[in-house]
Specification:
This protein is α/β, with parallel strands linked by helices and about 260 residues long. The chain contains nine helices and seven strands. The protein has a single domain, classed as 3-Layer(aba) Sandwich (Rossmann fold). Strands 3-2-1-4-5-7-6 form a seven-stranded mixed β-sheet.
Length: about 260
């Protein structure tokens, strides 16, 4: 083969960066082709699992690096949660019970706290607190009173035991369906609403009208339906192991109260 032909072939070959870009584009198109609720092919499922596992490790490393040195109680409680996951996988536990599980990374909780201007005088109410990690972080790094509502008995018992072991007096967990939660004490409600239907959000928004005037509600991926009791005050970026989305801030407003 002549030198001229070799040079022409070399120039026609895509670079490594171009190949990586093409691969990412193909993967995104593959996942986008199968919307939520449909079954991905084997290649797509493996790809999604790999990316989520990788993102989980990255978020956990950031948690260790940023927060473990600052609050030893949070560090040890988080290590216990990691050890407990060796015996039961929270995602598998929820899947067996027909639920969807997800934890909000501390980095995203920090964004929520900053956007909502949370202070130690607030009362944080998390609907679907899971194993309690988010409530522990809010309590230790914001200092406000924290209430977690969780209906999975295993998660409720685990978070309650950790609260008792590490003497987190400003943290409280209640085993209940969050549709039956009492909202009158909260000044900020957090709802991981990514997998909730619009109908469920409407029901919940109606129940949350018992919140005090000026209370804040944060939802993930979608805002609350329009109602006379809440006013949407803005959105902000949030990151999760499964990808990036938006958080929405709502304010409990006084007019048209019933």
């Amino acid at each position: 083969m002549s030198i001229g032909k070799r040079e022409a072939q070399a120039q026609s070959r895509p670079s490594r960066a171009e190949l990586a870009e093409l691969s990412d584009k193909r993967d995104k198109e593959l996942v986008a082709h199968f919307p939520s609720g449909e079954t991905l092919p084997f290649q797509g499922r493996v790809l999604q699992l790999y990316r989520i596992k990788k993102a989980n490790l990255q978020f956990q490393w950031e948690t260790i690096r940023r927060y473990y040195p600052k609050r030893w109680r949070f560090a040890f409680s988080d290590l216990v949660l990691g050890f407990a996951s060796l015996f039961f996988n929270p995602y598998r536990v929820c899947r067996k019970n027909g639920f969807v599980y997800g934890e909000t990374p501390p980095l995203s909780l920090g964004r929520i706290a900053a956007f909502c201007n949370l202070t130690p005088d607030d009362t944080w109410l998390e609907l679907g607190s899971g194993r309690g990690k988010g409530c522990f972080w809010i309590s230790h790094f914001i200092g406000c009173r924290t209430i977690g509502i969780e209906k999975v008995p295993l998660f409720y018992r685990l978070s309650s035991v950790l609260r008792w072991i590490f003497r987190m007096d400003r943290v409280c967990f209640i085993q209940a369906d969050f549709n039956k939660a009492q909202f009158h004490e909260a000044t900020c409600v957090y709802l991981y609403s990514t997998c909730m239907s619009e109908e469920d959000l409407e029901i919940l928004a109606h129940q949350m009208k018992t919140l005090p005037i000026g209370a804040k509600v944060v939802t993930v991926s979608a805002p609350l339906p329009k109602t006379a009791h809440f006013s949407e005050r803005g959105s902000f970026p949030l990151s999760f192991p499964w990808g990036d989305t938006e958080g929405y801030l709502h304010l409990r407003i006084p007019y048209l109260d019933s």
